[in-house]
Description:
Order of helices and strands: HHEHEHHEEEHHHH
Number of strands: 5
Structural class: alpha/beta
Helix content: 40-55%
Number of domains: 1
Shape: globular
Radius of gyration: 17 Å
Number of helices: 9
Strand order of the largest sheet: 3-2-1-5-4
Amino acid sequence: MPPHEQIPEPWFSFLQELDELATETVRMDCIGGFVVIMLHGLNRTTADVDVLEIAPRSMADAFSRVAMLGGPLFQKYGVYLDRVTVAQPPYEYESRLQEMFPGVFRRLRLMALDPYDLALTKLERNIERDRNDVRHLARLIPFDLDLLRERYQAELRPYLGNPKREDLTLKLWIDAIEEDRADAKLR
């Protein structure tokens, strides 16, 4: 599939301009709705690419000047990069990254967290959109709930500011996923 069909506009043009700006290989670790939409087929919109990391630092600074909210690329395309500093990813997330659009860009490497890690980055905020994203991922993959619990316990819980609250949030998420699965069996 040609790149312009694989990545819808305005995203393709926005990312192509970042690729052209790059003077060396740039890795962006992506999370959020952009990944759920582009990689996992959720039918919703987003105006940003949430990124945990842009490396190397020199390119992160260059991208920040042009691609953040209000920057020239935002003015041109209406979409932007959002450097996320509040979402906590699981500790070993980098070992499970996968490239989103291999071979499409010359220097830009958009890396997506695996679905379990992606879901767990949404745990602390836990707004309705996050819960819908997680339920979509749980249906699509489908989630192994024991693996989700294990990754939370081993790689995320020790680093959370309020782990008891997030324990409850994860329990509620798992209950909702199990309820969805029971409802699906009845259909």
